[in-house]
Amino acid sequence: MAATTAQFPDLRDRPVLVTGGGSGIGAALVEGFAAQGARVSFIDIAEAASRDLAERISATSAHAVAFYHTDLRDVGNVKSTVAAIESDFGAVRVLVNNAGWDNRHEFDTVTESDWDDSQAINLKQMFFVAQAVAPLMRSAGGGSIINFSSMAFMLNIPDIPVYATAKAGIIGMTKNLAARLGPEKVRVNAVMPGMIATERQRALWLTDESMAAMVARQCLKHVLTAEDLVGPTLFLASDCSASITAQSIIVDGGIL
Questions:
Q1: pLDDT band at 3, cuts 50/70/90?
Q2: What is the pLDDT of residues 214-254, one digit of tens each?
Q3: In a domain, 193, yes or no
Q4: What is the pTM of this model?
Q5: CA-to-CA distance for 193 and 102, rounded, in angstroms?
Q6: Burial class of residue 77 (count of CB atoms within 10 Å of its CB; 0-12, 13-18, 19+)
C-alpha cells in the first residue's frame, strides 16, 4: 500500500520521538512524521542502518531527522537519551513506543534469560520511555503516547508465548497510563498491527503461502506493509484524536 497522502497540519514542527525507528514499521513511521513537517528524532540499537535512514530522509524533509543510538533495555541510557533529545528538540509532544523484538520460543524450552530479555525489549522499556517523556509533555501542556502492541496475542499462536505475554501487557499498561496522565492532557493509546510483511518477517518467517493464507482471512485482500501503520499513527498523534485515549486500534485488514 502506498504511503498516506493525508495531511495533519498540527503535526508540523511538533517534536516527535519514535523508538525502534531504524527499520521496518519504525522506519515507515519516521518517514511518515517527517513528511508531515514534524521534528523527528528516533532511537534504535542498529547504528549503521539508522544513520543511513536519517541521512536519506533529512535530504528532503523540512527538518533534519535525528538518530540516537541507545539500548532501550538500559533504563539509565533511556533517561540520558531522552534528556539529550529534549536539549536538541525541546519537549517531546508525541512518543511512538514502537521498538520490539518478536523472536519465537518453544514453551517447554523457554529459559529465564529468554523471558527476561524479551520482556525487557518488548514491555519494560516502553514503560520507562513513557516515564522519561511524560514530564516533557506536562511542561508543554500535553501530548500523545502511542504504544505498539500486536493482535498476535489474540490469535492463539503457539510459538510466541513470551512475546504474546508482553504484547498483552502493553494493552493493560496503555489503559493505566491513560488514566494516570489524562488529567495532565497526555493521551495514551495503542496500535495493534496484524501480519505486517516487513523485510525481517519476509526473511525469517513469511512465505508466499503463509501470506496468501492470512490475506484469505482478511476482509481487505492485500498484504499489509509497514506503510499501512503510518496513517493510524499520525491520526492518534494529531489533534484530530484529541478526545481519544485508553483505546486500541487494530490494523489487520479485518481479521478480528
A1: low
A2: 899 999 999 999 999 999 999 999 999 999 999 999 999 99
A3: yes
A4: 0.95
A5: 13
A6: middle
Residues 6+ apart with CB under 8 A from 128: 75, 78, 79
82, exposed or middle or buried, with CB in 10 Å at 0-12, 13-18, 19+? buried
The whole-angstrom separation of Cα 234 and Cα 231 is 5
Statement: residue 129 has pLDDT above 80: yes
Q: How many domains does the chain contain in total? A: 1
SS3 content of the chain, % helix, strand, coil (to 5): 50, 15, 35
- Residue 186, in any domain of the structure: yes
Residue type, 234: L
Question: Which residues span the domain enclosing 132?
Answer: 11-251
Residues 28 and 110: their CA atoms lie apart, in Å, by 32
Confidence category of residue 1, pLDDT binned at 50, 70, 90: very low
- Write out the catalytic residue numbers: 163
CATH code, 196 = 3.40.50.720
